[in-house]
Amino acid sequence: MELTHTRLLVDNYKECFLFYRDVLGFEVSWGDEETLYAEFKFSGCSLGLFERKQMLETIGAQVSHIHKSDCIW
């Protein structure tokens, strides 16, 4: 088995897009900082970046937010 694609659901899409493109230098193969979905290529793999709210709406799930106080540090 070979891992070729990973998708991340994020709450801060634009910031994450800019991080993977500008800081890590991943090549954008689809999308931009405004599309709410993008794919990057690196080392023979693909990384999909998708706004969490958009995905939840697509599958008909309710959007809920995790507050910092709910997390275990």
Keyphrases for this structure?
73 residues; 2 helices; 4-stranded mixed β-sheet
Could you please describe the fold and organization of this structure?
It is a single chain. The protein has 73 residues and is an alpha+beta fold. It has helices at 13-23, 52-59, and strands at 5-10, 27-30, 37-42, 45-51. It has a four-stranded mixed beta sheet with strand order 1-4-3-2. The termini are far apart. The model is unreliable at 68-73 (pLDDT under 50).
Beta-strand percent range:
25-35%
Give the class from helix and strand content and strand pairing. Answer: alpha+beta
Poorly predicted regions are 68-73
Strand order of the largest sheet: 1-4-3-2
What's the rounded overall pLDDT mean? 84
From N to C, what is the helix and strand string? Answer: EHEEEH
> How large is the radius of gyration?
14 Å
How helix-rich are the residues, as a percent range? 25-40%
* Major beta-sheet overview: 4 strands, mixed
Beta-strand segment tally: 4
Q: Estimate the global geometry from the Cα principal axes.
A: globular
Total helical segments: 2
Ends: how far apart? 34 Å
Helix-strand blueprint:
Blueprint: E1 5-10, H1 13-23, E2 27-30, E3 37-42, E4 45-51, H2 52-59
Parallel strand pairs: 1-4
Antiparallel strand pairs: 2-3, 3-4
